[in-house]
Request: fold
Amino acid sequence: MDKQPIGVFDSGYGGLTILKEFVKELPSYDFLYLGDNARSPYGEKDFDTVYEYTLQAVKWFFDQGCHLVILACNTASAKALRTIQQKDLPYIDTTKRVLGVIRPTSEVIGIYSENGHVGVMGTMGTVISNSYLIEIAKFFPDLKVTQQACPEWVSLVENHLFNTKEADYWVEKYIKELLQKDENIDTVLLACTHYPLLLEKIQQFMPKQVRIISQGKIIAKSLNEYLTNHPEIDDQCSKNQELSFYTTGDLTDFNNHASVFFGSPLEAKGLFL
Ligand code: DGL
Reply:
């Protein structure tokens, strides 16, 4: 049996916040991470571009032997996942699996809210796709979901501007805009894997009674359940506690900053897609 690592893809650093939770939840598994830092942010790009970039990444993971790839990026999940699953996989390899982050999050988000008013903060691409509205309605039809695009937040994170005046300005602005649309929101989902890095700032400007939900633990638990329910896929995953990292961006920059996202130092290899 050809056992291989689980592929984890993000437009840049954000997916490392998800990978960190995968490693905690599934410590024996091997993971192969790819951040497309050279071409991020994806949030402002059109559907075709995000789909094309994501498909390139998925094919690269398959070339490395991965049987299972997680799109640890909401924008890629919103704009590319369905087409890849329905149109591309049947031609590429019907035994391979590609999963995203929107459905597992939508399955549980309603549980966190006491009054049924939830805010979803994401990239422009994720918000415009309405993927969260559509998916959440399947599981929690009575939930009132209000979306807020936060186009500047990914740039703040990718440029490491966590504690700056710009961060204060943009974080306060988008939170205010969201709460103006529905002042009863008691739960806010950070529907972009980059946003947990702004958590301190977000907490600073979010009213104290609002619960802020990051996706990492939710996605990790869901992956664990998926592997338990699909032993044929689980059997194809290698388990030597090995992690490898690739970036399409500047290697020194990635290695210097990735530890903030991942929580411990790491050394990536460069890749040109
Ligand atoms: N981290 C990605 C997400 O979860 C988006 C970042 C980007 O715009 O590239 O949506």
Observations:
- The longest helix spans residues 74-92.
